Amino acid sequence: MASKNKGLERLDPIAAELLAALDGGSVHQCRKVAKKADAWAKACRCKPLAKAAKGLKKQLGAARNRQVLHYWHQQLALAPLAEPKMPVPDPSALAAAIKKAPPLEADALLSAYSRAFCKGRAQYRACRGKHPKSEPLHRLRSTIKQLEAYSEWLGAAQTAKVLNGLGQQLGDDHDLSLIDHKIARQRRRAAHPALLAALGAFFTAYGENRGGR
């Protein structure tokens, strides 16, 4: 373990952070890393890293959906489902891509944040109906998670915290959309006013400050 840590110390700090999180990580943890790696790939336009991140998310997607269904059936007091057996993730391809990816510079992060902010704001404006469909909101969540990663890497902890909360709300919306039951649909629709208000508040408050500070 000591030699492994020593190796990580020689890497770019972001790479070291992601590799450490991948090592022995759960399905949930590995998917989180893959999303951060995807944000990195978009910032530096690194196709191999983007491909590896997408591959790991695809590898673990079905298991994650089973986990979500089990959790929400419990939360909504629906017919119980057997607890899913979770696979052992194989993040080796993503780990290799992270080690070869170009380091992220501050200018690249700021530019990526600005692009993602503009994209997210446009996505939000397209979702402002009373009860938006799940697919556009899910795409918006991907953008929000990118913004969260960029804010974290830029040292904007408060912005990252706000974005994390938005990501959780959007994640709940997507999870509930997977459940074909009246109670889940009602729960999802009931949450829309607060969700849309929170998104609107973010894009209004941070519209003049797209550096993530």
UniProtKB/TrEMBL annotation:
According to UniProt, the name of this protein is: CHAD domain-containing protein
Q: Which Gene3D superfamilies match?
A: CHAD domain
Q: Which domain of life is it from?
A: Bacteria
By its UniProt entry, which InterPro entries does this protein fall under? CHAD_dom_sf
